[in-house]
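User: Fold this, then the next.

Assistant: Folding the first:
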Amino acid sequence: MENMENTPQRLQIIHKMLDIVRHDAPWIWGFHPQDFTLYHQWVMNAKPNAISYNTLKYVRIDPAIRTEKRVAWNQPVFWPLLFGLFTLIIITLPVLLKRGRQQK
């Protein structure tokens, strides 16, 4: 087929070859990228772009919603501090008691 002249017989062979390839192809040929990005509720005008990454200047942020969510999500957690203090007391208590007995 490669060395044949452009005749209807050559075109028929090309069509037959294409039909075989189309039938046996496991995927549709082509490139169709899909970008998925998660954004917070306060981020607006942000769209994924596979070609350009300089779109940060177009992103709009709502500071009121951001502050509200930050305050709601970032409540201080004090139990690790109390647990650490309790552990420190439990660890040092036997040492202090032993030193007290040795000094008597």
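Now the next one, as you asked:
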Amino acid sequence: MDDDGNGFVDDVHGWDFVDGEPDIQDDGYHGTHCGAIISATADNGIGITGAYPGIEIMPVKIFGLGRYLSSEEIAQAIRYAADNGARVISASFGSATPNEAIRAAVEHCRDQGVLFVSAAGNYRKNLDSEEGRDYPSCYGIENQLVIGGSDNQDNSATFSNFGQIVDLVAPARWIHSLMPGSKYRAFSGTSQACPLAAGAAALLWSEHPEWTYREVKERLIDSADQRERLQRWCRSSGRLNIYKALAGLPGDRNPLRDFSHWKTMPFELETPHPYPNEKTVVYPVEVPGARAIRIHFERFAIEKTYDTLTIRNGNGQLVEILEGDLGEIDSVVIEGDRATLEHFSGDFINDWGFRIDRIQYEE
């Protein structure tokens, strides 16, 4: 029976919009993996702990094995969640094609006071560019919290989409979680970062039930720990910190730097164009006596995800990992007077490479 009169019979846990039934059991793995990242039980001696252990979640199924819903049906599923009491929606899905029905559904969530947490996507695209857009992340509606991915050293994960529309990042590389059949497995993706942030939002909101989605979103961003190496990848330069969000503490902040007082020296270094496959080349960089340096790349274009340029300081500490077609860029600040650039190329596709034409330095 449709006891609550919402038009869905026996939807005591949620609804399967693929098959039109209340049985929301997973016939893949994605929903289970993401759902457990939000809600897995704590302190039971097995498995993992979710971002908000023991929270009740409402599974709303929009994908099945080999079966896909239309955009209008996905929009109906989003509205269903908002209309049936969800305050936070974790949306680990995306498309390069915008859709007015889904946009309207996210706006409906806004009107209902719902925070819509979106995974940025896994194609290493610049979401701020016309050709790099991904949806629903790029609708730019104020109740959206767009989450990119980071690795275990607070670098932007090499697969994560990026841009100033990305609010903050959360761990996304080799995240262990539950699988159907009482199993566990690690996956990488912004699909994993998104439920971490959504769970954090729900946990924070449970501590402050009088807050609006704006206040929850603002606290999560303000409490995120900034890293200089994240500043080109998301607008806050911040990585999620659930503890600081709950404690009302500000996150770590990047130092303020005035580059107008730095000196500039010419420095020519470049790869072959295109660079060869299956090769690792190490390039030393030094400005004797400098307190800090910043490398200017006149052009940077190496194969995204599979090829990388790793920058380390003189002590061998990781500073930044770069990949993709980034155009003209500056590295983050490297403390000390020396750096090492390690260019790794895989065995398939390559790209133009990079050219360095100058270095800024602080005496």
